[in-house]
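User: Quick sanity check before I run a bigger batch. Here is a single chain. Can you write out its predicted 3D structure?
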Amino acid sequence: MTEEGKSPYEDIIDLPHHVSQKHPPMDMEKRAAQFMPFRALTGHEEAVAETARLTERRIELSEEEREDLDRQLKILEEHLPERPLVQVTYFLADPLKEGGSYEEMAGRIRRIDPVEKCLMFADGTKIPLEDILSLEGEILSRKERSHV
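Assistant: Done. Predicted structure follows.
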């Protein structure tokens, strides 16, 4: 406001909006794009989100837990012709940062590959034996009950 209590734009505030005779009016989307904020730090938001993303540490199995897992793998190997249905909890390393996540998969076992050291499912999925945290399945439950 000026000293007299009037707006400095008072003389132009009520003038009609200029419409060009030469150029067609710009559509609203293009006009709005002119006023988008300047993004000097391209990728900054993505980097912050990646840093904030949490990963889990790999759980180290005890000697006893490894022996139990080996026993379960032997049971599965004995029953491979039956294509036993199992649920596997395994560690999936994060490709971008240290750590990873624990995933679960259920499926029918096709084979246990001693060369690749992995559990191969009927659908082609391979899970490295060193990444397996636990195994569950009907065939394993029956064998555990019969050993008690």
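The chain has four helices and five strands.

User: Great, the batch can go ahead then.
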